[in-house]
Amino acid sequence: MTYRELLRTPGAAAFFVPTAAGRVGIAMTSLSIVWLVRSATGSYATAGVVTGAFAVADALVGPQVGRLIDRFGQRRVLLPAALVHALAVAALVLSAGYGAPGWVLAAAGALVGASLPQLSAAALARWSALLDGERKPALPTAYALESLSNSVAYLVGPALVSTIAAAGRPVLGTLSAAALVVAGGSILALQRRTEPPVLAPDGGRAHHRRALLRPGFVVLVGVNTTIGGFFGTMSIAVTAFALERGTPGLAAVLFAASNGAGLLAVLVYGLRRWHAEPRIQLAVAAVALGLGSLPLLARGSPAVVLAGVVAGVLLTAVAVPVVLVLGSTLADAVVDRGVLTEAFAWLGSASAAGGAVAAMVAGLAVDGTGARGGLLVAVAAAGGVTALALAGLHALRPVDRD
Prior knowledge:
single chain; mainly alpha
């Protein structure tokens, strides 16, 4: 099934478009907070603390929001979440404007993160419900489309908010991000036609929640944590490599090439019908990630080292988005439908947590041994993804869901 055919599925475009717009807002939010707080306080340290509070709150509370969605339905949770998010952003903007102390700004930032509507998890759950039954083979294409939307959002969003803030309008950047998030979440919530059904109050909810402890899902959380670690490490290591060479502009070129390769890879992956089981595909993609990271450790002349880093960046960029798409596909296969939104939210939180921890480790490695130390951490993270995918082959077999 092509992406166009997929979006012609009754009700699909109606929830995909607002979710895509909301994702752009989410991609803008973190950086918009940095610009806003830095402009108001003159301190990058304070901006970092507030942004960190935002990220931690999102990672911790996001799965709980997903749990509420599974329990009460998307409309009854996303609409209040969008309202709270709008109020939280207003509180942050006003606090920054009136010169509130750092702890107040951090608290407001945490509330912004905690109230983020879980748009990606909600959209993935809608695709699972919409493509149930005989249309199930199209689900990987749907998840690839969601991955494409997310990748585009993180290309457009940061560039958009940086342009607005650099023009001297950081408040406008923050409010624009919030407007997209609130509008996207609200419109998604109002799409009743494709809203997944919720369990009845006595529908065996405790049994369904135990599905989150199944070995297969635990493996997926581990894979997402380590691949998030790879992301976080590469952002530090590649930047350090470019600076060590005396060519800081090289980092932007490498990141742009990486994003382009990833977009192309997931675009092609979603268009093909693959005959191998998703767990086998995950193992293959994870091995490709591990092997593709090895050129990052190339030694020799500066030209050889540069060629190795370029090759490593491009090869891993092709594997990473495929691993993430397959993670969503396998979560749909090993987790009961009654906790599916929460499961998707946990995978997102795992990636974020892995990225945050790995970025700190990579920073310490770069400070101690230079860019090569950071690249070594990246290779270790890629190897962790490979090891977990291979070790979890048995656990990732599909299960019968109630």
